Amino acid sequence: MARIINEPSRTFGEYLFDPNQKEGHYRPENVNLRTPLVKHRKREDPSLFLNIPLVSACMQAVSGPELASALARCGGLSFIFQSQSIEDQVAMIRRVKGSKAGFVVSTSNLRPENTITDVLELHEKTGHSTIPITHDGTGAGYLLGILTEHDWKFEENRGRPVSEVMTKIEDVIFGPAGISLHEANSLLKKYKKSCLPIIDNEGNLQSLVFWKDLMSHLDNPDELLDVEKRLVVGAGINTWDYQDRVPALIAAGADVLCVDSANGFTDHQKDVIRWIKREFGNSVKVGGGNVVSARGFKFLAGAGADFIKVGIGGGSICITREQKGIGKGQATALMEVVEARDEIFHRTGIYIPVCSDGAIVYPVHVAMALALGADFVMMGGWFARFREAPGRLIMDGGNYYKEYWGEATNKARNFSRYDVAPDKKGLFVFEEGVEGRVPFAGDLKDGVRDALAKIRATMCDCGALDIREFREEAVIQLASPLAIAEGGANVIVNKNIFSGK
Ligand code: MZP
């Protein structure tokens, strides 16, 4: 007979926090949400961390380059989806790495004999308005001048050479190679310029520094940047084509990888992680998952995973539990894995961050996951609602929605995540995910700000100013379904209030 566990598995919405005694400085503005992303030793800093504990799912409807840039600006991270060609995924990674930087290597350049028509075509293709003019039309050529939107936007003579309208090098304010970003920004401020070219001793262009990036940094103090001041981005990989995909993603600048698999307790996944560690040593960080048990966690920890994702069947678009009966309530799965993680930490001094993946509907569920021991959470549907997500915006009955679909749908055709071969028509024999829509929620930045305000407020009420303290201080109680229902607005009729969720 099968082994039967009679305790029911639970999910986040079944628990409530008990408030703690609070001292004056327990205020939301004092809460620090920084959290480790990858494995590290006791008392050592992890080589990668997040400034806010939110990552977006490896999903077609969620983690495209626009959302990845917006989330990294807020301090979180996206895993660009792997259910696409290697070339397309690489191009998305490059877009994120190139979309923000201190020193940007210019990819939109022209020669002096190029015309206004060439400028318009280049602008159409790249969206860039500032165009260095170099002797050979490359981003490393001898700089002859700079073209900004003011120079070309209203020029009626489309055949006019750019050399006649550009600001010539003798009038260009530039910075010398080797200058610090702080010094470059000071020059931008001093000379009231929108762009500062950096050139070497021979007069060759090295990079550009933009005013708008300086402004963006001031607006986004938590933004997650690499050592070269580029936005940090992750990439999903699979257990099929990793020997080609991983080197291409690393070359494109992906900061961290994650094996995107519905069930990570498999030899395939162990092989992928071991191969990466053998080929690249510890310089390439790779997370594994998903698991829902201590056994699964220990297996991936033994394989060398740098973080481990927890969750099967709880995703908002997931029907794995209905289709195959596989899965576990998210809170219970997380508690079991966290216990195993903490046991390994106490025994070896090695800390492996845990990511709670899926089943987050409201910000309070993020708070619950953190209090239960997750270091960060991965969300799909929650992010798919924002303008920056790749899904189409749809208007229906006067309301706006964004498309959202699971990776185990025939629409996504992500066979590699589900370890299945397609049928003769190239479809899943049965689907484990559904297609649908989520209510449109505007800009990601506003949504993240509101969610973090709630999470910080919960942490303060529990007497915590950081995630570690939250885990130590939080007192959590299982509540009856009636007690949960009592917590919503009730008795009131015709309520025109937002329920606060
Ligand atoms: P959610 O945030 O929408 O609740 O769940 C997102 C998570 O669901 C993803 O990170 C992934 O682990 C999982 N997922 C993605 N597609 C499917 C599916 O089609 C799925 N079944 O379960």
Can you tell me about this structure?
- The protein is α/β, with parallel strands linked by helices and 501 residues long.
- The protein folds into two domains: 12-100 and 223-484, TIM Barrel, CATH 3.20.20; 116-210, Roll (CBS-domain), CATH 3.10.580.
- Helices cover 33% and strands 18% of the residues.
- The chain contains 17 helices and 23 strands.
- It has helices at 65-74, 86-99, 116-126, 149-152, 181-191, 211-219, 242-252, 267-280, 294-303, 320-324, 330-348, 363-371, 381-384, 415-418, 444-461, 467-473, 481-486, and strands at 15-18, 35-36, 40-41, 49-50, 54-56, 77-80, 131-134, 143-147, 167-168, 175-176, 195-199, 205-210, 234-237, 256-259, 286-291, 307-310, 350-351, 354-357, 376-379, 393-396, 399-405, 435-439, 475-478.
- It is globular.
- The protein binds ligand MZP.
- Ligand MZP binds at residues 57, 59, 290, 311, 315-318, 320, 357-360, 378-382, 406-409, 432-433.
Small molecules held by this entry: ligand MZP
Distance between the termini: 43 Å
Order of strands across the biggest sheet? 5-6-13-14-15-16-18-19
The fraction of residues assigned to DSSP E strands is: 15-25%
User: What is the domain total for the residues?
Assistant: 2
Query: Low-confidence segments, ≥5 residues, pLDDT <50?
Result: none
Q: Tell me about the biggest sheet?
A: 8 strands, parallel, barrel
- Corresponding CATH architecture of the largest domain: Alpha-Beta Barrel
Helix content: 25-40%
Kindly report the name of the CATH homologous superfamily of the largest domain.
Aldolase class I
Rg on CA atoms, Å: 25 Å
The third-level CATH topology of the largest domain is: TIM Barrel
CATH domain class name of the largest domain? Alpha Beta
- Quaternary state of the chains: single chain
Give the helix tally.
17
Mean pLDDT: 94
Instruction: Tell me the structural class.
Output: alpha/beta
How many beta-strand segments? 23
Shape: globular
